[in-house]
Amino acid sequence: MPERILFVDDEKFVLDTFRRNLRGKFDVETAEGPKSALKKLEAAEFAVVVADMRMPNMSGAELLKVVKNRWPQTVRIMLTGYADIDNAMKAVNHGAVFRFLLKPCPPDTLMRALTDALEQHRLLIAEKQLLHGTLRGCVQVMSELLELANPTAYGRGERAKALIVAMAKFLGVEAIWKYELAAMLSQIGCLSLPQDILERRLAGEALSPEEEQIFLMHPAIAANLLRNLPRLEEIAEMVADQEAPLEKNPCLGARILKVALDYTDAASRGEDAHIVAHMEQHPEIYDPRVLGALQWYLAAQQGQHVERLPIAELREGMVLAEPVVTANGKTLMRKGQTISQAAIERFKFAEVLGVREPIAVLRPKDAPRTQEDSKP
């Protein structure tokens, strides 16, 4: 993809000069003023933005601050006169600007600055891709190991993942990926729990005070593991506080985890009809804002219907409408859990396990069956 550079100035002849001098050397677009620039930025990706300091309604420094917040990988350069050096230096010191150039700017100086800015953009993109790939890869491995070692614990986080992401989006939070990873990693501490305690807790059975205390240790165990991984500090905080009382839990991500996990636990037991009303009666435990997001999500889910499919037609990403059980009554996957590729591989041994077919999954009412879905 071409690395485009956007020049912003309120004087057309200045923009025409940039376009003419840089033709054939860089992929240049221009915008007459900040308002036009923001429209262009919303419509397309730019590697670099070069803005004049003095413009009506919004200064170059103000524009570049907006660019920094909304498009952090876009490198920012400011053009300024001698009279605005102090303001330009403040913009640099506040991190909104990669470099500032004095007007009039010699062509060779401008081209060197643009070349450096493009290189900086490549470094930022490479770092983002490396971070994203490395983190997701590590989390995916940990999640798959949890699925193999403790399917019950894995299923709990997996059932809640779609709900957690949907509520986070509804609440307008940034970096949705952090909430998704928090859901995937929220139960890794359960590896240290006796299996019967976890099974009985999820089945809704009462635990003794000692057993309840053991269960409540798993968030701290998981968080201590996650703190050893770079860039997972916020996720570790979400996981650590997922069972904390509301008054001691300022972390929105942890509050979302609490609502989603408790709701999906109840739903897997068939108790979802009254769980929201129960939660509303306990504002000391459940954040009312998060409960509002839950109610919005549940209303949106009413547009789905249950479809029963043979194992051969199951696809990764489908959500179970009913538990998957074997002939002897053992539950392999719970209601609300998303079908993974690993689960599909296990289902290939359906005859050995005695899995009861067909499998009930949720499908949007207006979603057409794909040609692949329709294959016998």
From the 3D structure, determine the CATH topology of the largest domain: Hypothetical protein af1432
CATH superfamily of the largest domain: Hypothetical protein af1432
- Radius of gyration equals 27 Å
- The strand order across the widest sheet is 2-1-3-4-5
pLDDT < 50 runs, ≥5 residues: 367-376
- The CATH architecture name of the largest domain reads Orthogonal Bundle
Count of helical stretches = 16
Percent helix, as a range, is 40-55%
Strand content: 5-15%
Average pLDDT, rounded to a whole number, is: 84
By CATH reckoning, the class of the largest domain would read: Mainly Alpha
Shape: elongated
- Annotation, overall tally of beta strands: 10
Beginning-to-end CA distance, first to last residue: 41 Å
Integer count of domains: 3
Structure description:
The chain is built from 16 helices and 10 strands. The chain is an alpha/beta fold and 376 residues long. The chain has 3 domains: 4-126, Rossmann fold (3-Layer(aba) Sandwich); 150-302, Orthogonal Bundle (Hypothetical protein af1432); 303-376, Alpha-Beta Complex (Molybdopterin biosynthesis moea protein, domain 2), CATH 3.90.105. It has a 5-stranded parallel sheet, sandwiched between helices. Strands 6-10-7 form a 3-stranded antiparallel sheet, with no helix packed on it. The longest helix is centred in the middle third of the chain and has 43 residues, at 107-149.
